[in-house]
Design goal:
Blueprint: E1 7-9, H1 11-40, H2 49-73, E2 75-77, E3 92-98, E4 103-110, E5 121-123, H3 127-132, E6 140-145, E7 148-159
Parallel strand pairs: 1-2, 4-5
Antiparallel strand pairs: 3-4, 3-7, 6-7
Helix pairs in contact: 1-2
Amino acid sequence: MAEAKKRLLTYAGLKALEDELENLKVVKRKEVAAKIKEAREQGDLSENAEYDAAKDEQRDIEARIEELEGILKNAEVVVEDEVDFDKINVGCKVKVFDVTYDEEMEFKIVGSTEANSLEGKISNESPVGQALIGKKAGELVDVETQAGQIQYKVLEISRSM
């Protein structure tokens, strides 16, 4: 059996996943069980849309619990005190100047599990993340993206956690 891939997480990311798992197990399971019980009490289950919807919700909750447990089991937490802030790595906040589009941007470099472009969190496995990892302030970085070649100048590296 192949060893599961380690999932890099910041401490904040780990805490968020643990909180979500706890909520699913303690709150959501009870809520959906009550919905199923209520739907069963309505009688004939063969044409009971509420029952079907509740069972679907239960299946989704259990699938997410299983997914979260797998992620947490294989989590490797980035310890802030061990991160070298002289160069870009997971756990850093990076300010760059986009030479191509003449604008300043800020990213948090996180593991793929935490990535969320709307929150400015980019994965270390994304094209931009891969290109930035290991770079120092002042360096130019060329990134090949779906939109084409982009060049960044690294302005600043700091703590993000």
